[in-house]
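User: structure tokens for this one?
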Amino acid sequence: MRALAAALAAAALAVTALAGCTPAAEPPATGGGPAGPDASANAAPVTVVAGTRPVERLLAHVVVRQLARSGVAAVVGEPSAQPWEAAGDRRVAVVDSLAMAAEVAPANLAGPVPTPSPSAAASGSATASPSPVGGPSPSGTASPSDPAPASPTGHPTSTGSPTPLPEGVPAPDAVGTTAVVSGHLPAGTEVLGQSEGTLRLQAVTTSATAGLYGLQDVRDLNGLCDRMDVTPRDAGAVEARRLEVLAGCEPARWVDPGRDGPAGDLVRGRADVALLYGTDPAIADDALVPLADPQRILPEGRILFAGSAPSLPGEARSALEQLAGSLSGEQVAELQRLTAGPDVLPADEAAQYWLVSAGLEPAPDGWF
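Assistant:
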């Protein structure tokens, strides 16, 4: 798909060059100029600041292009590890609400976690995991007491017993996470748009590991995690306690992701379980298995656009809302695909390709 995108984009550029003109709807390739005459009246362009991950940096170019098509001059600002701090007058921040909450309000993101009563644990009166690891093994799976092959990371099968699990308060959903971070935005700024799709944090493993241990639900890790490596370590800083108490999952190690990221670590046997967003295209591309989480032990968030509404042209907010409405889970996954692999398009071309595929920008003549 990315190779096709590159070829189509190259063909479009060639047709434009031969014609000796630029389509009227085409914003400047730098993302810094207006698409219409109204934009020239703006004293200064809007600066769009995103995080440092490749998909966030690409999204900044998408936002700039979307604004330019609405007649609002905009430029891409320097990426920041805390992009929300850049929101302000004529400055729009592209914010991952889960990442922001984990930094500015980790206690709110984790929520209250009950302390299991020793007497309840001893009597077994607490709610136990419905997972198969505590009872007879389903056909073709292993339980903690079975002699079974080592896990992908080389650990032997766990010999521990499942822990009685208490009922806990669900982690924040996307609405709750937005409410948490809204109170930590710079003074005078607000959420101007939020993605249609959510960023749901999920425990993910390989089909081989899921089949070996009969894993379907995150609580099926109960009694197994003490022999498993989980990635990334940063997620463990916020989620470790919830996983330990509410899912019975206290990993042998939290490990830093390798060069290919947490999903690549699963595929290459560097980790047994990874915490990934459900929108990560590697889940489908590498046939990984997300573990169900009906109790919402792990939180969810959204992509937010934050800034000062009074400082922006009226067209800017409607353009951001339109873009946010097109950011479904599938389209967020498509954005991530455009940032990976050996044939990655330049950011401006990738932004154009995504906007065309999302129906927000007409295809140039001769592109399709």
